[in-house]
Specification:
heterotrimer, A mainly alpha, B alpha/beta, C mainly alpha, A: mainly alpha, ABC transporter involved in vitamin B12 uptake, BtuC, two-stranded antiparallel ribbon, 2 strands, 3% strand, globular, B: alpha/beta, six-stranded mixed sheet, four-stranded antiparallel sheet, 11 helices, 10 strands
């Protein structure tokens, strides 16, 4: 009985740690949606490229890890801006479905580019971090680190949004796009900044994920759909909702993985999602329509 | 100060303004009155840059507004309080005001402008941490005006300030406009409520179906037949 | 005039395999026809703005349920396929009903369906003991691969005719929907759901009907694919890539036109073959890369697709703009 409790506790704690990273992912997606009103379907693929970036910079070229991380965050941030300029901006007036499909096209493109460039082999960062033994539970240090970094990242974003003028503009534009002009805000600049921020968050997530998981061209499929579910459940554009939903889903995946294969955790999460739609449909509506 | 000449504007295939010419001279308060659908809101939008004119010229103190990018028009000194306030509902009063002072030039004077606005609207200071969307119509109108004032404008554009407000509140709003005016700010008010607006402006234009039909001092227009006809279609 | 043209073309298509025997080309045609049917199935609901990014899930269910029923359950595909269709329909109902009931549309709906196809892929991988997981799955050959009972045929001609028939049925269904009251109801819904509801349209019911129809048809495509290729894997019949591929093909070909999805299938499959032939094994990933770029370019420059844009160019319409207050 005691052993059972320990495993359960361990799964619960791992769920919280996973939740931190998932919350970071959903923050990036929500940010872009809230401001620009577009869902980056290829968000997970941006992260995938960030993970490859870390692999090459750290494992192959032996850059110091913090420098590599900073480079990745900046690099994926730049990717975000590029994505906006090349794909999103031309479609800002088009039907939302077209915008979705265009980012879907980018998803295809990124997965294939990775396949062509890096082949489908699994790559590992090769960084072995210790595993902490705590009261009979094994908590991986890399998970703790990822959780801490994710929290710090989110706090920084929160401070940016609430304390700076640009942050206020980002919050405002999500609520009333048309009149931003009257405040003297150049909406195009805000979109670019938001794209860079969304990309940067993806880059940070990449650094954290590559500590724990191998990278391959289709790794995005492991956490992409979950991120979408989290954002939809929490309400697209709703940062607080996404934050809570992230931890709920993380616990479901973690607990599901405790009793069955990891993949079943995702199935649980999806079933839970469907059930939640019946139970609390308002929880699915973003505060902005 | 502000000069419009033969301005045409509209939405897509629909033209709302036909060769509108008007001006606001320094130190003036000017009103634009007219029935529903006359194009009054379009007029203000074309001045503040929310929409662009298809023909004609708009100049503020000599600066060609048509050639100016929309988001730089505030910097020229024009602040627009839009129809139905358009506050950011899920931001606090203070954040809304902060957005009004987004311009670099305004940021430098932020504390002073904030103090000025709070002095003008003590109720806003009380409610400064309240979410703007939860306030009453009158309070929202004050917040909207305050937000526009944060950029220290030379010309304030007011779009139907009485819309959706109880008569008592409408009185208060127009009293406030008088006070702002007295402080030296130029005002261009677009309004359906003829009596209230002619109380506070020096001159006014009558806009009907996109064209200026009459112009004159407030007292002239108050007693004019043209106004009655325009509104009642008699 | 067009009526006779259709019949002549149809007769030509049916006669084709009897005069032209090249097996490789016939194989390509069969593949094109099956995928055309799949894409047409998607467009049956896609044209009404119900953009599902999860149809890969239904195709996967069609394929795997049929194969599993045969291998594990000994059920002939004549029974297995209907079971697969029902499974697809039920899944569609389960996911679509709460979505429609609670007005989950547009972005939300697309994302939920996207997640759905991802989940189906995960389930297939998770049940690897039964399904072979990512390594793929093969229906067992029966009587040397030529049996009506097992729905396995070695002759390309037979498969060509079957695929042609199913494709034609798909077009027929498309036409029936196009001429039905359901079409007007759904168009009204896609324009203004509340307005349609106020006019007496049973919004949820109509949307559900078309969704289940589309899902069942797509499942059939999956089942056919399984029986024809005699090998399925999660990546080739299900998952996000397949879902996106479907949308891509229909967008390229033309979403509002009956033959649009078919044109899209022709283009995408021929493109993949050309790339495969010219690049050889190095082509892995290149076809999707080109798809990705083309999809983006098409969305930006030709949102109506090739067929749709051509038709629109031939028939100019006056657009009425809404007036946003004066």
């Amino acid at each position: 009985m005691a052993i059972f409790d320990v495993f359960l506790l361990e799964a619960l704690i791992n769920g919280v740690l996973l939740g931190g990273v998932l919350a970071l992912l959903s923050l990036g997606l929500n940010l872009v949606f809230g401001v620009i009103d577009v869902v980056w379907i290829c968000y997970a693929e941006l992260i995938m490229f960030g993970m490859y970036g870390m692999y090459f910079l750290y494992t192959v070229y032996h850059w110091p890890i913090l420098v590599a991380a900073a480079a990745c965050i900046a690099g994926v941030g730049a990717l975000g801006v590029l994505l906006h300029v090349l794909v999103i901006a031309p479609l800002l007036g088009a039907a939302p479905i077209n915008q979705l499909l265009a980012t879907g096209g980018v998803l295809f493109f990124l997965q294939s580019a990775a396949t062509v460039l890096f082949s489908i082999e699994f790559r590992n960062l090769g960084l072995r971090l210790p595993v902490l033994k705590l009261a009979g539970m094994f908590i991986s240090y890399s998970r703790l680190l990822a959780f801490a970094a994710a929290l710090i990242g989110m706090v920084l974003v929160f401070l940016f949004l609430s304390r700076t003028y640009t942050g206020a503009a980002i919050r405002a534009i999500a609520q009333d796009r048309q009149i931003m002009v009257l405040m003297g805000v150049d909406t195009r600049r805000i979109y670019l900044i938001t794209s860079a921020l969304g990309g940067g968050l993806a880059g940070l997530a990449a650094c954290l994920l590559v500590l724990q998981y191998d990278v391959h061209p289709f790794v995005g499929l492991s956490f992409g759909p979950i991120t979408f579910l989290i954002c939809v459940l929490g309400g697209l554009g709703n940062f607080g909702g996404g934050f809570v939903a992230a931890f709920v889903f993380a616990e479901l995946i973690s607990l599901g993985g405790l009793y069955l294969d990891l993949e079943w955790g995702y199935v649980f999460a999806f079933v839970f999602f469907i059930v939640m739609m019946f139970v609390r449909p308002e929880g699915l509506m973003a505060r902005r329509s | 100060m502000l000069e419009l000449r033969s301005v045409r504007a509209g939405y897509g295939g629909f033209q709302a303004l036909f060769d509108v010419s008007l001006e606001v001279r320094a130190g003036e308060a000017v009103g634009v009155i007219g029935p529903n659908g006359a194009g009054k809101t379009t007029l203000l939008r074309v001045i503040s840059g929310l929409i662009r004119p298809t023909a004609g010229s708009i100049a503020m103190e000599g600066v060609d507004l048509v050639a100016t990018p929309a988001h730089r028009i505030v910097a020229v000194g024009i602040a627009h309080v839009p129809e139905s306030r358009r506050l950011f509902p899920r931001m606090t009063v203070e954040d809304n005001l902060k957005m009004g002072g987004f311009l670099p030039a305004a940021r430098a004077k932020y504390q002073d402008r904030l103090a000025f606005v709070y002095e003008l609207f003590p109720r806003l200071r009380e409610r400064r941490r309240q979410l703007a969307g939860t306030m009453s119509g009158g309070e929202q109108q004050m917040c909207a005006i305050g937000r526009a004032l944060m950029s220290d404008p030379k010309l304030l554009l007011l779009d139907e300030p009485s819309a959706g407000l109880a008569p008592v509140i409408v009185e208060q709003v127009f009293d406030l406009v008088k006070r702002i005016r007295a402080g030296g700010l130029n005002v261009l008010i677009v309004e359906q409520n003829v009596r209230q607006v002619l109380r506070v402006v020096d001159r006014a234009y009558l806009l009907k179906a996109g064209s200026i039909r009459a112009a004159g001092s407030a007292s002239e227009l108050l007693s004019s037949e043209t106004i009655r006809e325009a509104y009642l279609g008699v | 005039m067009t009526r006779y043209l259709g019949w002549i073309a149809g007769a030509g298509l049916v006669a084709l395999p009897f005069v032209y025997h090249q097996p490789y080309h016939l194989h390509l045609l069969v593949v094109i026809l099956i995928w055309s049917f799949a894409y047409t199935s998607w467009s049956v609901m896609g044209r009404f703005g119900l953009v599902s990014l999860g149809h890969g899930g239904f195709m996967g269910i069609g394929a795997y349920v049929t194969a599993l029923a045969w291998n594990h359950g000994g059920l002939t595909p004549w029974i297995g396929i209907p079971i697969a269709l029902v499974a697809g329909g039920v899944l569609a109902l389960l996911v679509a009903y709460p979505c429609f009931r609670f007005r989950i549309t547009g972005h939300y709906f697309a994302l939920v369906t996207l997640a759905l196809s991802g989940i189906v892929l995960q389930v297939i991988t998770a049940t690897r003991d039964h399904t072979g997981g990512s390594l793929g799955y093969t229906p067992t050959r029966y009587q040397g691969g030529s049996s009506l009972y097992a729905m396995q045929f070695t002759g390309k001609t037979t498969w060509y005719l079957i695929a042609l028939g199913v494709w034609a049925v798909g077009l027929y269904v498309w036409y029936r929907v196009d001429r039905s009251m359901m079409r007007y109801a759904l168009e009204a819904i896609s324009e203004d759901e509340d307005g349609a509801a106020a006019a007496g349209v049973h919004v949820t019911a109509e949307k559900l009907k078309i969704t289940v129809l589309s899902a069942v048809m797509t499942a059939l495509a999956g089942a056919l694919y399984c029986q024809y290729q005699m090998f399925i894997s999660p990546d080739t019949v299900s998952g996000i890539s397949i879902s996106l591929q479907m949308v891509f093909a229909v967008v390229v070909g033309g979403i509002y036109v009956s033959l649009g999805p078919t044109v899209g299938a022709i283009i995408t499959i021929l493109l993949a073959e050309v790339l495969r032939i010219s690049f050889g094994t190095r082509a892995v990933g290149w076809d999707n890369l080109v798809y990705g770029v083309l999809l983006v370019l098409f969305i930006v420059f030709l949102p109506k697709g090739i067929v749709g844009s051509l038709l629109a160019a031939a028939r100019p319409r006056k657009s009425v703009r809404a007036v946003a207050g004066t």
